[in-house]
Amino acid sequence: MRIPLGVIFVTTALAISGCGSSGLRELQQPSTGPDEFMVMPAGQLTPPENYALLPTPTPGGSNLTDQNPQADAVVALGGNPAALNSGGGVPTSDGALVTASSRYGVQPDIRASLAAEDAAFRKRENRTARFKLFAVDRYEEAYDKETLNPFKINQWFRNSGYGTPSAPPGE
Fold this sequence. Notes:
- Pfam families: DUF3035.
- The chain contains 6 helices and no strands.
- It is an all-alpha fold.
- The protein has a domain at 131-158.
- The radius of gyration is 27 Å and the shape is extended.
C-alpha cells in the first residue's frame, strides 16, 4: 500500500519543526510573566542563641535571614560591607580607584542610554527578520556584525609581534 507523497512531506515537516527551539535567544519579550531572576531565596533558618535579645518585629522591616546581594557582592570582591551603611560614600581606601576609573568622565544615565540605543538597534535589525522562510537564531542574526572572532584576533596579535597565550586550534 502506497502512502501519498503529500502525507510523507507533511509528517516530515512536522517532525523537523518539533526539533527547533529559540529559547532565551529570542529578541522579543515572549510574555509579561514574572521574572524568575528577581526572586531571592531566604537564608537558612537557625534558632537564636538568646530569644530575649531578638529585635522587636516591625511590619515591612528587615529580617535576620534576609539576603543582601549588594553586601554579599562587596564581601566577595574583598570589600567591607559596613561601608555600604556609612552614608553611601566611597571609602577613602577606594578613592584612587574611583578617580582612575572616572578619568574620562562619568555619564550618570549610562544604563538608560545604552538600553535605549540597544532597543533602537534591535528594532532596526528586526525589520527584515519577520520575513524568514525558515526559523533562524534572531540573536545571532542581529548581533553578528558586533561579534569578535577570537581566533582571528589572536592570530592578528601574534602576527603583530605581541606575546599571546596558547590557544586551541582555530576553526
